[in-house]
Amino acid sequence: MIAIPSGFSPEEYLSIEHENTIRHEYRRGLVYAMAGGSDDHSRLAINLLTLINFHLRDGECQFFSGDVKVNYAAEFFYYPDAFVTCDPRDKNDRYVKRYPKLIAEVLSPSTKKFDRTDKFEDYQQLESLEEYVLISQDEMCVECRRRVKDGGGERWETVVYCAGDLVMLQSIELEIAIAELYRGVSLER
C-alpha cells in the first residue's frame, strides 16, 4: 500500500472520494489508492456475499460488498470485502457505515500483513464488531477472530478453519461448508 502524500481531514477525504472513480481508503490523514484484485479474490468475496444473502434474506441485518465504507471517528474509512450491520443507525448514510457486527477481508499478497495487524487493530475500536474474518486465497483456510466479553473485560479469540471444515460465523449464526466458500477458486496456481 502506497500513501498519497497529504494530510487530509476526514471531510476532505470524503469530498474527494465522492467525486472519484478510483476507490481510496483513509487512515489517520493518509489516503491509499486501492489495488485491483485477482479473479480468486473476487470469486471468494462473491461466494461469501451470496451465502450471506441467502442466510439473511429480508431480516433486519444488511450486508455490503467492497463498495461501501466502514468508518470509525476521524481514524479510518475502509472498504471491507464484505460486512454485515444490523444497527438501524447505519440506514442513515448510504455511503458510510459505522456499526458493523461482521467484517470479512479476502487476503491479498500486498495487503495480508496490513489486514492481519494494523487494520485489525483499527477495527477493534468498533464496539459493534463481534467477528473479523480473514479468507486466504492461497489455501483453503479461513481465520475467524471473535470478540469475547468476560467479567469486566474483553479479548479476541481466533478459530482457524481448513479443508473439510464447517465455518461458523457466530455473529450472524451462519454455518458454511468451506468447500462452498471456495467453489470455483483455483488453489493450484
TrEMBL record:
SUPFAM superfamilies under this entry?
Answer: Restriction endonuclease-like
GO MF, any single term = endonuclease activity
Read off the CDD domains from this record.
Answer: DUF820-like
**Pfam families reported in the protein's UniProt record:** Uma2
Q: Which keywords fit this entry according to its UniProt record?
A: Endonuclease, Hydrolase, Nuclease
Lineage: superkingdom = Bacteria
Q: Which InterPro entries match?
A: Nuclease_put_TT1808, Restrct_endonuc-II-like, Uma2
Claim: Electron transport is one of the keywords in the record:
no
What is the designated name of this protein?
A: Uma2 family endonuclease
**Nuclease recorded as keyword:** yes
Putative restriction endonuclease domain mapped to chain residues: 10-172
